[in-house]
Backbone:
């Protein structure tokens, strides 16, 4: 897991990951790149991350990948990311394409639902919590909408 301040350098990160695994005999390398899109008059997004929980969550996914003979990599931004820049990259390396295709889908969906990352809209230079586009984290008590 890699955390960066600001937008991600997609070509550089994907190349580093490819170079690190190209001799590992994986038959599939499936990346997913998340990009900040224009909506609701925002100029970008800003992210806060609770790193201890994210590390634990990611380690559990590394173990799941290992059981399937695959590996998972992930990068995410801290702070501000402007429109059309990337804030999230994930990639799966696996001997078989079907494993990689299924695993990247499961991983990205669970990331959206479970990762302890708080998203803010950037509007006229201000950070505004994006509550209507955020997902409560399972087991988070009052913050998760549970009583």
Residues:
């Amino acid at each position: 897991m890699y955390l960066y301040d600001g937008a991600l350098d997609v070509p550089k990160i994907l190349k580093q990951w490819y170079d690190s695994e190209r001799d590992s005999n994986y038959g599939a390398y499936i990346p997913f790149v998340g990009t900040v899109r224009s909506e609701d008059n925002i100029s970008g997004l800003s992210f806060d991350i609770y790193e201890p929980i994210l590390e634990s969550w990611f380690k559990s996914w590394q173990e799941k990948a290992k059981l399937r003979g695959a590996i998972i990599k992930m990068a995410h931004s801290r702070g501000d990311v402007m429109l059309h820049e990337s804030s999230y990259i994930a990639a799966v390396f696996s001997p078989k394409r079907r494993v990689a295709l299924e695993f990247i889908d499961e991983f990205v969906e669970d990331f959206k639902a479970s990762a302890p990352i708080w998203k803010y809209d950037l509007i006229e230079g201000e950070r505004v919590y994006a509550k209507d586009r955020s997902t409560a984290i399972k087991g988070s008590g009052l913050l998760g909408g549970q009583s």
